[in-house]
Amino acid sequence: MKTPIIVIGAGGAGIIAAWKAALSGAPVRLLEKNTRPGVKILISGGGKCNITHTGTIEEVLNAFSVGERRFLKPSVHRFSNADILELLRNEGISTYARPNGRVFPEHGTARDVMRALHSILERAGVEFRLQSRVERIIQKDRSIRGVVVNSEEIPTNHLIIATGGKSYPKTGTTGDGYAWAKELGHSIVPLRAALAPMAVMPALPREWQGIALRGCRLFAVAAGRRIASWDDDVLFTHEGVSGPAALEVSRSVAASLESDEVELFIDFFPDKEFATLDDDLNAYVQSQRQKTIGTLLDAWMPNRLVEWFLVRIGVSALTRGIVLSRDDRRAIAHALKEWSLGMVSDVPLERGEVTAGGVALREVDPRSMRSRIVRGLYLCGEVLDIAGPIGGYNLQAAFSTGFVAGESAAADWHAEVEAAQDD
Ligand SMILES: Cc1cc2nc3c(=O)[nH]c(=O)nc-3n(C[C@H](O)[C@H](O)[C@H](O)COP(=O)(O)OP(=O)(O)OC[C@H]3O[C@@H](n4cnc5c(N)ncnc54)[C@H](O)[C@@H]3O)c2cc1C
Description:
There is one protein chain. Helices cover 37% and strands 24% of the residues. The chain has 423 residues and is α+β, with helices and mostly antiparallel strands. It has three domains: 5-192 and 354-422, FAD/NAD(P)-binding domain; 194-269 and 341-349, Elongation Factor Tu (Ef-tu), domain 3 (Beta Barrel); 274-337, Helicase, Ruva Protein, domain 3 (Orthogonal Bundle). Bound molecules: flavin-adenine dinucleotide.
């Protein structure tokens, strides 16, 4: 019997996998528990969808850690950033790259991207089933035999798991793929938040909520060592810190928190060494000696922060430049380079834009996305132990691995059908 290829999860990885497999003529069924496909794509990039990152394939790969890069290399070569953009262009979605390399739809939003992906699925003949939560996977002697959906058993010999991560569970990603993969014999690298906001203690003053620090450096220190650092904007929230710099350091912070305490610091002037900054501060104070240091610092940081900043160092905001001592000035310069925000109390997994950890990469063939453990099983997208930085890299990883998973599942399906005909 010709059982269909089953794809679980209609996110970036599952959609591209189902489309690619169906183009070969194989019957493909895409099962999604939500009432609509691509919920995460719809909320990506603040609803604008940062589809991918511009640049060469090597540049895209270099954004990932060494192990992830090695794993992704064959699939990103097979289906690159240029390929996904061409696919969308053929569906009428033109795109543009921002100066930071992030690629977005030129006119539309994430909805238009989803509409385009939906129409390629339809044209390829993918059988799309929404509100279809897969409950269980059936295997026999380390070979896939079927899935159970809404208590109905669907036989299949070729199953693509594209169920995403475990963060943002309201979008459907509740980590089902990890549990199945584990049951099937795969190792799961421990899950952690990545690209997540961080809570700090003691709690930041309420008055800071909504303040954005532009172009600063956020760095994290654990056991006396700087474990992560990122230059970009930081946003103060009611719980702690968010914004691109916070999201980027969160993965390393979450990992270190398991064994150490982690303290966060801001460097307001990452491009200046302490000595230069101190000289600049001195020159600035000397040029306006009658002004108070509180007023002077208004030009160097958001004014809502100035008083807090100076209280922490023990310098009165009312001190006039003319009487500011050398020691106080150096203390200010020092704090501008290394201002403690407190200890990290939590990096919530459910708030991460991606989940770090997942199905161990060594157990999946990077050229085919075939499981090295179970026959007829393919894994792609965020369910794998891959978590890239902000910038369109995570969707690209989902598209590329999805493409290869769909291609290999289809090749295996056709080979099986041919073998059956020969018998
Ligand atoms: C707020 C936010 C913004 C983001 N912005 C960007 C961005 O701009 N650019 C970027 O590159 N990345 C972004 N990301 C990350 C990116 O969206 C994900 O890494 C990517 O979508 C992962 O794709 P995926 O196909 O592996 O998984 P998902 O897109 O998460 O898809 C998995 C699907 O599987 C379904 N599913 C799960 N379990 C079952 C089950 N048992 N039965 C049936 N279906 C099931 C889920 O409902 C879901 O639809 C963002 C993430 C978030 C949360």
